[in-house]
Amino acid sequence: MKFFKAYLKSHKITILAFVIFVVLFIVSFVLYHLPAAAVMYPSVLCLMAGILLFWKDYSKEYKKHKILEQIRRIDFSLLEELPEPDTYQDEDYQEVIESMREQYKTLETSMNIKYQNMIEYYTLWAHQIKTPIASMRLTLENRDSREARKLSADLFRIEQYVEMVLTFLRLDSDYTDYVIESCCLDKIIRCSVKKFSSEFINRKIKLRYEGITEDIVTDEKWFQTVIEQILSNALKYTRQGSISIYYKDNKLYIEDTGIGIAPEDLPRIFENGYTGYNGRKDKRASGIGLYLVKRICTNLGIGIKIESELNRGTTVILDISREKPEFE
Length: 328
Known about the structure:
The chain is of the alpha+beta class. Among the domains are: about 1-75; about 175-320, Histidine kinase-like ATPase, C-terminal domain (Heat Shock Protein 90, 2-Layer Sandwich), CATH 3.30.565.10. The chain is built from eleven helices and seven strands. The strands form two sheets. A five-stranded mixed beta sheet has the order 2-4-5-7-6, covered by helices on one side. The protein has a two-stranded antiparallel ribbon with strand order 1-3. Strand 4 and strand 5 form a beta hairpin. Helix 4 packs antiparallel against helix 6 (about 145-170), helix 5 (about 130-140) runs antiparallel to helix 6 and helix 9 (about 220-235) runs antiparallel to helix 11. The longest helix has about 40 residues, at about 90-130.
């Protein structure tokens, strides 16, 4: 109906001219007092011919419209052929579209090259920076002083940021693969917690974890990245108290007694670069951590939900049932 109205509007002059000619034809016959049959017969013939031509042209235009509608849904870069032009105006439009398509392909190629160069540079940087980090780690291992412990903690955070960069790069890489297999959930959690053991000790944060006997079907490396990022956030925003990890009804809960998240920030915490109220207070926040967690969980088919109350704490819930998550 929408196309029909648009068609009538675009052909209103032609339709109006046809109606005027038919009326003039009838009026001429009436003025000369010709028999009604002589008037009606040619009038009906003209009307039928007009309807036939109208329907033929409408069908042709509608077919072209449907083709263009299908083309509109595909990737612009894959566009190869447009419907055959009927008028010089159609040809002009198609030449403009073809010119834009060529410009688009050139721009896309240029952007892809720049993006690939950027990815290669940051990947190289992230791998090379690990060498001085490892060297500093070895130097600090033989020292046991307050300053050395502080430097070790800072170095650990640097390592976490480097890993975050690598994770970000791997997520969009064409070579990222996922090995989905049965994994020991307890092993993944203990490995993740072990990385943050010095943080727990130095900041006197209690860990409440009694072990989990369940196995899960997932990619061990990527799921461990999720756990580590959640623990990193929990430690960052928990000044005192505890962090609890437990498993219930096919869901993994990571709960802290930290500063919590403001209610107005909860709907946007998974957005890239969004830091919210806590991030504005803590200048170190990047707003990337939970974005990466959400991306990885989506790729692994894991549901994630965050419940929080300001100044009371935050609970991250991971639905690892491998069925359709209760929450996205």
